[in-house]
Amino acid sequence: MGTQHKHFRIGVDTGGTFTDVVLVDEDSGEILVAKVATVPADPSIGCMNGIEKALASHGIDPGSIAFTVHGTTIATNTIIEGKGAKAGLITCEGFRDVLEIAYQTRPSLYDIFYDKPTPLIPRYLSQGVPQRTGPDGETIVPLDEASVKAVARFFVEEKVEAVAVALLHAYKNPEPERRIAEILKEECPELPVVLSSDISPEYREYPRTSTTVVNTVLLPKVGPYIARLEEKLTARGINSGLHLMSSSGGIIAANIAKRQPVQMVESGPAAGVIGAAFDASRSVYDNLLD
User: Which residues, 6+ apart, have CB-to-CB distance to 279 below 8 Å?
Assistant: First the structure.
């Protein structure tokens, strides 16, 4: 049976040294593999090199690829290596230190010499504006739009690449955050804006703010990478769409990953556990941990 009548699923995992490609025949379950060197300057090149090698080695037509999924450490590495975008944070007046204060929790509770990790957004780029929403979503202090415009001009002067917005209790009432986004679009339309009410609409100020900030510093770095890979796949005749591994252990569509790259952080370890569990389920052992 010729490969033109077959349909394959393809998975590409990019590591620091090698890029691994796995093809699975949807009908027979046959597994085909290929390995190439990763291209650190642009991992999408390594991805395509691996895909080209896999297709050529096994005589597979690009049009027979029915599903494409990609696992990458680009989001995790961007954070670890401190290569995220220069970003600003807008929060409620009096709460600009939320990233500095963070949690009381730390590895050694009574160690007075413990150094907290450096915030992804420095304090001078964390700006408070007059606005306060209560825990039930009620307006306590209306948004001062003039202050938002002043902060927008400051961010432009500082050449920030993206802006995070995280107001108190925005999960209950997202309208003030949305109004800030509208003002920023008017004042600095080139800057991407990430709202906490979109990324993590849950209570607890620091986790919501920090999650929003992580997404913000990743957005200008990870989004273009995914877009480049999509373009290369389409140019090669692979029209299956692109999915990426997420930290939940599931997958997300490329259009979501470009907007919410925070979902890709630590997706590698999650995928590793799932893969190990799958292999373990096929073994003859009842408990591999013994």
Answer: none
Cβ atoms 272, 246 nearer than 8 A:
no
DSSP designation for 259: H
Alpha-carbon gap, residue 94 to 119, rounded angstroms: 18
- For the chain (290 residues), the mean pLDDT of every run of 10, in chain order, is 73 92 94 94 94 95 96 92 96 96 83 88 97 97 98 98 98 98 97 97 95 98 95 96 94 96 90 86 82
What CA–CA distance (Å, rounded) separates 46 from 24?
A: 20
Going by C-beta distance under 8 Å and a sequence separation of 6 or more, which residues neighbour residue 11? Answer: 21, 22, 24, 68, 69, 70, 71
Residue 1's pLDDT is: 43
| Residue from 266, 242, 189 nearest 70 by CA | 242
* 263 CB-contact burial (10 Å; exposed 0-12 / middle 13-18 / buried 19+): buried
CA distance 255 to 226: 9
Dmax of the chain from CA atoms? 70
The domain defined by 3-78+223-281 folds into Nucleotidyltransferase; domain 5 (3.30.420)
Taking alpha carbons only, the member of 35, 10, 190, 217 closest to residue 119 is 217
How many C-alpha atoms does 159 have within 13 Å on its Cβ side?
0
Q: In the numeric block, which tokens belong to residue 36?
A: 């190439």
User: Where do the domains of the chain lie?
Assistant: 3-78+223-281, 84-218
Q: What is the phi/psi pair of residue 279, to 5°?
A: -60, -40
Q: Tell me the β-bridge partners of 89.
A: 126, 164
